[in-house]
Predict the structure.
Amino acid sequence: MPFATKENMRKILVLLAFSLCFVGFSQEKVNWLGFEEAIKLNKENPKPILLDVYADWCGYCKKMDRDTYANPTIAKYINENFYAIKMNGEGKEDITYKGHTFKYQQQGRMQFHELAAAFLEGKLSYPTTIFMTKEEQFLQKIPGYLGPQRFEIILAYFNTEAYKDTDWADFEKKFKGTIK
């Protein structure tokens, strides 16, 4: 009986298609959390916190989702080392943090969430990445699109706490990334 029958070829193609689908679905993705959920988890098991502040209409936010956060190396590193929060800078849901409830605001044509505005110090720029310590202390806000290679360095700088005793320029020069 010949191997390359139509039925065998059909089975091989089905198995190949299934295998390719499985590989695509098994790719690591960032485990995004809500703000209050991440803070609660941080109380139980402290980790640094990463906030991605975005707006639905923001093209560079979508590009960062597609190019940077979808990168398997970046996603894995974030999931292992940070609580990742995706915060809509114009979100309408109330967020309670440190005993205060932050709300959605609309002033004329301008709309924003009070917590995002507080973290961004009133300069609503999207996307902005914010890093906090595991003690929930604000460390740094980095406005603008960050590509995967650049973001890998930044993640390592904050996760390893190099910011405590290493100048950024020195850290950047010595960093050996894995993303090419």
